[in-house]
Amino acid sequence: xxxxxxxxxxxxxxxxxxxxxxxxxxxxxxxxxxxxxxxxxxxxxxxxxxxxxxxxxxxxxxxxxxxxxxxxxxxxxxxxxxxxxxxxxxxxxxxxxxxxxxxxxxxxxxxxxxxxxxxxxxxxxxxxxxxxxxxxxxxxxxxxxxxxxxxxxxxxxxxx
Length: 160
Description:
Number of strands: 2
Radius of gyration: 25 Å
Shape: elongated
Order of helices and strands: HHHHHHEHE
Number of helices: 7
Oligomer: single chain
Strand order of the largest sheet: 1-2
Structural class: mainly alpha
Distance between the termini: 61 Å
C-alpha cells in the first residue's frame, strides 16, 4: 500500500497535506502509510476508495490462495511505482483478455458407449483406467495441484 499511496499522490501532484484532506485520512496517518506502516481499518477503507482499487487486492485467505497468472501480473502492475492505478488496471485488463484468448484450454474428454448390456473385458478395463485417472486428477486439483487432467486430454474412445 505504501508504494500505491505515494505514487497516486505524486501522480496527482498533491502535497502530503492535500492528499490527506482529499482522501479523508489524517495527515500523520498518511505520512506513516507512505513510510510503510499499515493504517487502521477505517483509514484503510478511505485509502482504498481514494486509490480507486478493490479492497480484496490487499487480502489473502488464511488457508491458501490460488492465483491465476493474470492475477499475479495485475498485482505486480499495481505495485509498480511508475504506473498510475488506472494505467496498471488498464494493462492488467489487456493481459486478462489476451490470456483468456491465448491460454491453452482443457481438451474435452469424449466417451462413446454403445447401447449394449455388457462391456467387453477390454472396454471395461479402459473405462476403469479413465475413471481412475479422473479420480486421481480430481484429488490432485483439490489438494492444490495444477488444474486439468493432462493424461485425459484429447482422448476419444469407443467402448464396445
